[in-house]
Amino acid sequence: MTNFTSTARWTKGASAAAVAAGLMATGLSPAAAHVSATATSTAAGGYTQITFSVPNESDTASTTKLELTLPEDTPFASVRTQPVEGWNAEITEEELATPATVGEGAITEAASTITWTADAEHAIAPGEFQTFTISVGPLPGEEGKQIVLPVSQTYTDGRTVAWDQPATEGGEEPEHPAPSLTVTAAETDGHGAPHGAATVAEQPEQTSAPSTGGNTLGWVGLIAGLLGLAAGLTALARTRRRG
Fold first, then answer.
1. How confident is the model over 216-230, as pLDDT tens digits?
2. β-bridge partners, 52
3. C-alpha to C-alpha distance for 40 and 135, rounded to whole angstroms
């Protein structure tokens, strides 16, 4: 029994060491699981879905709350959340100091924060992670514009971790980097026009050509009716002759 327990402990320790070694070989460490964001599209002027991956970095506490701060200098005209089981999402809107031009119009208020709160059964436990997806747009029309999306993560032990440190290109990654995305060039439809741009296409005037399909069906029906009538008259004549 003692030998089995020692072997199991050695195997577990060796496995953990192998995982840690693998992470270090790829430039990561066991504590490098940060809150990150990925977008389905980063094209200027377009709409996108951004998914935040939120790992639990605590060994003893669970994550019960997440607060996302949306950009104030480049506000989104549209913000929507995707439902997450056991989590309640609340969008807070604020009036802008000055109206902002978004797309082809101007807005005077915009979403400033999104707060997700978990119920008792769906908190992110140690060793687990959860994803939160939002749909926003339009993105800024400036290619190369960086959109920083700070996130605050709250644990059951009262501790709050702010993922709000901006990363600099070529610099060392901060301890708590803020999720971000960089706007890319606007997509085009192959003719130099932005993809999805509102355009009015002139439809060619359609002329009505004589249709023969309906007339053909009418003649077929008439002939079938006459044949049926003839068959009925013949049967009636035969019956009378027999009588």
1. 545 555 565 666 655
2. 37, 132
3. 10
Q: How many angstroms separate the CA atoms of 12 and 15, rounded?
A: 5
Query: What is the predicted pLDDT for the residue at 212?
Result: 46
Look up residue 10 and give its two tokens: 């050695």
Quick check: 61 pLDDT over 80?
yes
DSSP state, 197? -
Q: How confident is the model at residue 173 (pLDDT cuts 50, 70, 90)?
A: confident
Q: What is the SS3 assignment for 10?
A: helix
Q: Do the Cβ atoms of 58 and 159 come closer than 8 Å?
A: yes
pTM, full prediction: 0.66
For 42, the token pair is: 């980063």
Q: What are phi and psi of 27, to 5 degrees?
A: 85, 10
Interatomic CA distance for residues 63 and 125, integer angstroms: 7
* Domains of the chain, start order: 33-179 (2.60.40.2230)
User: In sequence order, what are the beta bridge partners of 182?
Assistant: 146
Q: Which residue from 149, 133, 132 is spatially nearest to 74, judged by alpha carbons? A: 149
Closest CA to 164 of 145, 178, 174: 178
The residue type at 216:
T
